[in-house]
From TrEMBL, chains A, B:
Origin organism lineage: Bacteria, Bacillati, Actinomycetota, Actinomycetes, Micrococcales
PANTHER family according to UniProt: LACI-RELATED TRANSCRIPTIONAL REPRESSOR (PTHR30146), TRANSCRIPTIONAL REGULATORY PROTEIN (PTHR30146:SF138)
Source organism of this protein record: Intrasporangium chromatireducens Q5-1
GO molecular function: DNA-binding transcription factor activity; transcription cis-regulatory region binding
Identification of the protein by name: LacI family transcriptional regulator
Residue ranges that the Swiss-Prot or TrEMBL entry lists as coiled coil: none
Keywords on record: DNA-binding, Transcription, Transcription regulation
Domain HTH lacI-type as annotated: residue spans: 1-55
Pfam families: LacI, Peripla_BP_3
InterPro entries in alphabetical order: HTH_LacI, LacI/GalR-like_sensor, Lambda_DNA-bd_dom_sf, Peripla_BP_I
Length: 334, 334
DNA sequence: GTGAAAGCGCTAACAG
DNA sequence: CTGTTAGCGCTTTCAC
């Protein structure tokens, strides 16, 4: 079923059929209607590859993300897909398995097949990011770098909210459990929490680097216990959850003996008991925004000052935060 | 950067360059090496759309699934992607949001852009499935229907394992909490558990139909309590988890007062306490198998007896199953 | 407002 | 083994 079949069936030239789909307004109403009716009747659908060959646009966008197994990312995928479909875009999803080394290669191999890419929490170095942007129009999601268009979240403000909450509860020794070294968000969060802690006169302990997974969180338990803090903020919910579990297995009561705050507000966080106090980051929304931004970039290539949006996070207080337990030390040794 | 650029740079014809990529063995070693070196040097990459226009193959496969927010599906996506990338295939992921009405439309709109599709847990009716298979080579994942190639899991056997386990523990009144009415797996599981229960002389209570989500599980709590069973098997882990939580909020102790078994073994199930006893279904593996099967179908179109694989499930006993509590009724009323 | 012709980048006969 | 030719399905000048 090609455009020529429709053309001859409708008694017009292929060009006219083409115009009916790409610039309907310039073709006479009667003709257009006849053609479109015929097209529907024959169940004709333009071949996007053929169209792309001449227009240079594929109608696809690429999405690179570190790990679909972290429930944070599927939410983003849903937002991105929803918004992309509204504009008739299809999305290629690529999971990099948290391996920075393969990111650029995947971008390159995808470049020809997409009109643009959304790089979600990329672990690449800035220079690689710049190169990626060279290969295909790029929007950064949850990262900012080198003037590339981006949509991010208010990491520093999120940390401030966390510290404000803990300070109000009376904590004065707080830990931060770091995620991957290469994570840009992680660096933002550390910087933000340092500043917020200082503002409150709170002592901040930075605890290791851990994989941004449940297992990573379990591995952090030891360090958290040794640090002597009464509360911790974790790089993300998965780490917070792993920590929560490992602590419980060692007989530590959360939140009585230790308060925990995560980041992301993945669905699991509300499913466990005690339910995790966390910083809710807009997931589907940031995905949608990223698509809008990308389409905008595609529509106005080479525009100056590509926008860098920042979406706010919001503290969701659940059950893992409480005032510090003054007698905790006594109890543990007793 | 087209094939002609490479051709003239290497002093050969475009066809030769083409052959170097598609059938390297038929071109003389020296020539081939020179061409490939030139191609690398110029960073030439074949345009897949152009190639597809003539070969009729896109190098893409489509993946339709009901809900990325259920952690079960991201695991499958990972398996599928991994395997697809090994054969240089890219994958379009489409989330249908558990809406059977849109499935066929999405298949149609994707058909032209892919070489084949994997329909994962589709909710369509058999006739629609048959139509989908008409539009594009199709492999069913976690469903079987009308002789289409498929990879599924041993649902009935899984239910048998669950019932064996509960029977061994001493339960004789067991509930099954159903998922979506349209779910084929759900029907398989009901049939399987009926048979298994009968074989053990166990009374089976079938409890409602619920959304295959955490909320769906919460909604099931009331019915489970009223049914008077001492153990339930849920359609999936998400329902089991929602149920677990809702019960705890009502003061029901799991597993003392009620045993719960889920299906899927999503990662969350091991993160909660009590950790969920569940039937582990091979997720990444079934994804990989589906890709293999699809590629096989693409390689031998029209082959007879398309294979219908069945992968086994395995009971993972964790903390939500225990012998029935004889004094439960007394306690509740006391 | 519509048609004819050219060509996007590539592969597949067919010669040589 | 390699080059020449034709054309995949579509959009887009350029005439009419």
């Amino acid at each position: 079923m090609t455009i020529r079949d429709v053309a001859s069936a409708a008694g017009v030239s292929p060009s006219t059929v083409s115009r009916c789909f790409t610039q309907p307004e310039i073709v006479e109403a009667a003709t257009r209607e006849r053609v479109l009716r015929m097209a529907t009747h024959l169940d004709y659908r333009p071949n996007r590859a053929a169209r792309g060959l001449i227009t240079g646009r594929t109608g696809n966008i690429g999405l690179l993300l570190p790990d679909l197994a972290n429930p944070f990312f599927p939410s983003i995928v849903k937002g991105i897909q929803h918004q992309a479909h509204l504009s008739e875009y299809q999305v290629f999803v690529v999971d990099t398995d948290e391996d920075p080394a393969v990111e650029l290669g995947l971008v390159r191999s995808l470049a020809k097949q997409v009109d643009g890419m959304i790089l979600c929490s990329p672990r690449m170095r800035p220079a690689e990011l710049a190169e990626a942007a060279t290969v295909s129009p790029t929007v950064l999601l949850h990262r900012r770098a080198g003037g590339l268009p981006s949509v991010g979240i208010g990491n520093a403000d999120a940390m401030r909210q966390a510290i404000d909450h803990l300070a109000a509860l009376g904590h004065d020794r707080v830990g931060f459990v770091s995620g991957p070294r290469r994570s840009w968000s992680g660096r933002q969060r550390v910087a933000g929490i340092r500043k917020a802690a200082a503002a409150h006169g709170i002592t901040l302990e930075e605890i290791g680097h851990f994989a941004p997974t449940f297992e990573g969180g379990s591995a952090a338990a030891q360090g958290v216990l040794l640090s002597g803090v009464t509360a911790v903020v974790a790089y993300n919910d998965l780490i917070a959850l792993g920590l929560l579990n490992a602590l419980r297995d060692r007989g530590v009561d959360v939140p009585r003996d230790l308060s925990i705050i995560g980041v992301d507000d993945i669905s699991v966080s509300a499913m466990v008991r005690p339910a995790l106090t966390t910083l809710s980051v807009p997931k589907e929304e940031s995905g949608r925004e990223a698509v809008d931004l990308l389409l905008q970039v595609l529509a106005h290539p080479g525009a100056r000052n590509p926008p860098a949006e920042t979406l706010p996070c919001r503290l969701t207080v659940r059950q893992t935060t409480a005032p510090p337990n003054q007698r905790a030390a006594t109890r543990t040794t007793a």
